[in-house]
Amino acid sequence: MKVGYLGPAATFTHLAVSSCFQNGAEHVAYRTIPECIDAAVAGEVDFAFVPLENALEGSVNLTIDYLIHEQPLPIVGEMTLPIHQHLLVHPSRESAWKELDKIYSHSHAIAQCHKFLHRHFPSVPYEYANSTGAAAEFVSDHPELNIGVIANEMAASTYELKIVKRDIQDYRDNHTRFVILSPDENISFEVNSKLSSRPKTTLMVMLPDDQSGALHRVLSAFSWRNLNLSKIESRPTKTGLGHYFFIIDIEKAFDEVLIPGAMQELEALGCKVKLLGAYQSYQL
Amino acid sequence: MKVGYLGPAATFTHLAVSSCFQNGAEHVAYRTIPECIDAAVAGEVDFAFVPLENALEGSVNLTIDYLIHEQPLPIVGEMTLPIHQHLLVHPSRESAWKELDKIYSHSHAIAQCHKFLHRHFPSVPYEYANSTGAAAEFVSDHPELNIGVIANEMAASTYELKIVKRDIQDYRDNHTRFVILSPDENISFEVNSKLSSRPKTTLMVMLPDDQSGALHRVLSAFSWRNLNLSKIESRPTKTGLGHYFFIIDIEKAFDEVLIPGAMQELEALGCKVKLLGAYQSYQL
Fold it and tell me: According to its UniProt record, in which pathway does this protein act (chains A, B) (predicted)?
């Protein structure tokens, strides 16, 4: 079994893949989220494992938009991971870490530590990398540069960097949700037996144009069936300012009656509705 | 009158400031969105002019989160600008623009041209700058590097760069909304007389914890009053995965009866409600 993930080694996605799958799965790193999803579509890997949402920074727009507009792969599972951000430097720079010239990481990791950076490194510029792992790899390869990187513990050991400040995220309760995508929506796989799980169903709903109150009617269809929504998220349809679609998470397994009933009703109201996945949500 | 904006010169925000205000306003560039907002709070400038939402890429999270969590400045106006992205290079590199080593710009600008880059520069890495203007300035200062920058026409003339490919955004209908913030919510200002305008009211609503269907009840409060919502956007509260607040735009001036009535009702339901601004929305 092959699992593609947003690499390189030791990204948070890699940490999530390693915590989720039983031994025996082969992990294949991709440089970007679209490349990873494309690889699952092309059959190079059985699954694409990519970040979807962080508790502090919100949705990973690239994942949502690529799934909706480019490669509509079903969601076959989800994994939630606690996120701890640390400040890492090259071992040869350990004593001088308070005088960094630059801080390098993924834009979400930098945003999660914005207050810390503002307080401790107010005038140090930062630069964005494709992933925390890629940033750590770069710092490891460039001992001549006095750069700090924000990344996880796995990155410190993989790239032999020193953790000079632990848990620098601005808010304590930091988690990220990752989705597991596969072209085969009925694919079965074994996960780490220590994980707990609960069922979930995710829909995409696009409202009819220019109907005042349409979202209210959409939510009514779920409300009167007692379908609890754990999330509703708006994203632009890319057809003009003010046009949105909605991603709706229902805290319930897909059934034969209630969810299909709500979907049919929404279509009758003129909405475009799509089932993005009915799956188990795992956590440690 | 002094207006702070996300600089340096020739960013899209600068273009919006120049299109919005009458002659006589002094424009002051800031390096980041938080610095620009902080300057308005400190009284260094009368207004902060910052991007809020793009039609392709969605909300500028940094602006929304900074307004909600750090510096609650009232919105006193809004400006919508059509966005045209071009590929620019240093004039000495014009003939070799198809063999770029790197593409540099703001992350939103790169995301807006994702398909173009995927098709024409599939293996060229990109790097993120604080703004399109900062990226153009860097390319102008480094003729020795073979870098392309995605930016606007004003950046091409300000930094003396060559436009080698025009209108490279992936979707035609590309606009960005900018908000005008001021510590004085009753401040009056004159705008370019060619702009059209319409009134708008923006609220922040935080739902009570763990109430299934709470968002449906919130929308009911607007729906039965015939208050048309042009936008509803969810953002994480940063207190844990699954906790959101909502930004709601109402297509109506703040009045004495309907909007205050809806706000009181939401508070009675256990929501936290805040008026972020009642203002005019301008466009060319």
Answer: Amino-acid biosynthesis; L-phenylalanine biosynthesis; phenylpyruvate from prephenate: step 1/1
Per-residue pLDDT reduced to its tens digit, A171-218: 888 899 999 999 999 999 999 999 999 999 999 999 887 666 788 889
Rounded to whole angstroms, the Cα distance separating B193 from B237 reads 39
Q: Which two tokens stand for residue A159?
A: 């790239």
Contact B238 A170 (CB under 8 A): yes
For residue A189, is it within any domain? no
Residue B206 lies in a domain: yes
Backbone angles phi, psi at B53, to 5 degrees: -160, 140
Do A112 and A77 share a domain, yes or no? no
For chains A and B, CB pairs below 8 A equal 106
CATH number at B249 reads 3.30.70.260
Q: Which residues pair with B68 in a beta bridge?
A: none
A48 strand-pairing partners: A4, A181
Count how many domains chain A has: 3
| B195-247 tens-digit pLDDT | 999 999 999 999 887 666 788 889 999 989 989 888 888 888 888 777 888 99
Distance from C-alpha of B51 to C-alpha of B63, rounded to nearest angstrom: 7
Which chain B residues are within 8 Å of A234, Cβ to Cβ?
A: 231-234
